[in-house]
From TrEMBL:
Gene encoding the protein: norW_1
Gene Ontology MF annotations: oxidoreductase activity
Protein name, per record: FAD-dependent pyridine nucleotide-disulfide oxidoreductase
UniProt superkingdom: Bacteria
Transmembrane segments: none
InterPro entries the record matches: Rbx-bd (IPR041364)
Organism annotation: Klebsiella pneumoniae
């Protein structure tokens, strides 16, 4: 299982600092992008890619791969993009239902 770790650390530290200063702070973790930086196949992914109930729409092209996992209500729950298609990751992240 691949999980993000830098963004949760930053958000947790910001929440902790507010609480230490006696300000109300609640930790809310949004859907986060995981970047796998390998020379042969760089990937960006987000959501719960391990869910068994997702239907995957996979488009593979010379420029890279876009795989979208949707649930029974056709809501985007996970995605994986590779190579030149990684520039689509932030737009997909905004569509992701947590």
């Amino acid at each position: 299982m691949v999980l993000p770790f830098l963004q949760p650390i930053l958000l947790s530290a910001m929440c902790l600092s507010k609480n230490l200063l006696a300000q109300a702070g609640e930790l809310k973790l949004p859907p986060m992008l995981v970047k796998v930086k390998t020379p042969d196949l760089p990937l960006h992914l987000a959501g719960d890619t391990r869910r068994d109930d997702l239907t995957w729409n996979i488009v593979a092209a010379k420029e890279g791969l876009v795989a979208k996992g949707v649930d029974a209500e056709n809501q985007l729950r996970a995605f994986v993009v590779s190579e030149d298609k990684m520039k689509e990751a932030f737009a997909l992240l905004k569509q992701l239902v947590s």
